[in-house]
Amino acid sequence: MYAPTPRTTASRSRDRMSYDPAAVHAVLDEAYHCVLGFAVDGEPRLLPTLHVRIGDTLYLHGSTGSRPLLAARGDAGLRICVTVTLLDGLVYARSQFHHSANYRSVVAHGTAHLVTDDAEKSRMLTALVEKVAAGRSADSRPPSRRELAETAVLALPLREVSLRSRTGGVRDDPADLDLPYWAGVVPLRLTAGLPEPDAGVTAPVPAGLRTVGSPWREAATLRGEHVLLEPLDLAHADELFTATAEPEVWAHLTHPLPTDAATMREIVAGALAAGHRGERVPWVQRCARTGAVVGTTSYYDIDPERRAVAIGHTWLGRPWWRSGINTEAKLLLLSRAFDELGAVRVAWHTDIRNTRSQAAIERLGATREGVLRMHRQRPDGSWRDTVQYAMTVDEWPNAQARLRERLRRTAPVA
């Protein structure tokens, strides 16, 4: 336990205070930035900056020319106060006086010293990059000697530290409980948005930056002899445009034929946004023999509670039709759904005009269940009737055997 001091002892609401190192460390590790307080010529200064904790030392990132770093060069170091606050919710009471917030806030006092050892500085910078994303230190260029020299690091031993927090609900006065006003808590949390690659980036988004959640919504890499399914990425857009740039490919899709690579990037970005919302799991299809990007496919209508999912949003370049790639892609997706996720039902939806797609779905062993009238709007504005197919877990063993036999007789595309 951290020993309370006059500076870390609350004058009111002492029940909200904690000196437990594990609880303090959890807040410091969850937060990405802190506020560094210090004095300059008797005047207070507050500086927002990045931090990372290694053991019982809090490291603060800065520039060699900043005021606090310059002041910390001497043997005496720099007396500082560091605060970190996580806002967990807004509390709405019946009375204005009792509106509040749920939060966790750490305050650390002490004397910080400038880190002069290059090895210690490198460990801090590596830890800071790893905090941003696990594995990132191996997936980016390390700092050069010049960059390391231009970076300043303050080290603050965690000794005089406290945690103050509020949790729970509304705490109205008993006399206000019958007032006709809404009261409750609105939880808050920091969530990452969809990664936006810099101009010219061709590398896919690293796995550590992809949304982690239910395996039903994870685009796990699936490998076969004909096709490789890997998570769709904006970096695939140009190759997708080249591979699928034929009107016949897009004749019955919800998007018109892309006119250029930029339009394809917009389509891919839309698929990735739907994936980020949990509405879709998009894959890119690669030819297993050549590695070329040849198409894309997805899970959608994902319902883990009903153990059901649909397969669709599939485009495949014309040269790879009837090659075994589409059949094996469906086999891989069906195997993942039934054998790994425990699905009991997989569905397909296709335009009633798309007789080629209907025949392909029927060859998979799916059963036509009916027609959804005026189900979706086509790119030309007309309303399409949608044919719905499905396969159940009871039908899967026989369908799997037939699909494997079909693929056994199909030579991979060279």
Automatic annotation (TrEMBL):
InterPro entries in alphabetical order: Acyl_CoA_acyltransferase (IPR016181), GNAT_dom (IPR000182), Pyridox_Oxase-rel (IPR024747), Split_barrel_FMN-bd (IPR012349)
Source species, domain of life: Bacteria
Xref: Gene3D superfamilies: 3.40.630.30, Electron Transport, Fmn-binding Protein, Chain A
GO molecular function, one term: acyltransferase activity, transferring groups other than amino-acyl groups
Domain N-acetyltransferase, first and last residues per copy: 224-394
UniProt xrefs under PANTHER family: BLL6696 PROTEIN (PTHR43610), N-ACETYLTRANSFERASE DOMAIN-CONTAINING PROTEIN (PTHR43610:SF1)
Name under which the protein is recorded: Nitroimidazol reductase NimA-like FMN-containing flavoprotein (Pyridoxamine 5'-phosphate oxidase superfamily)
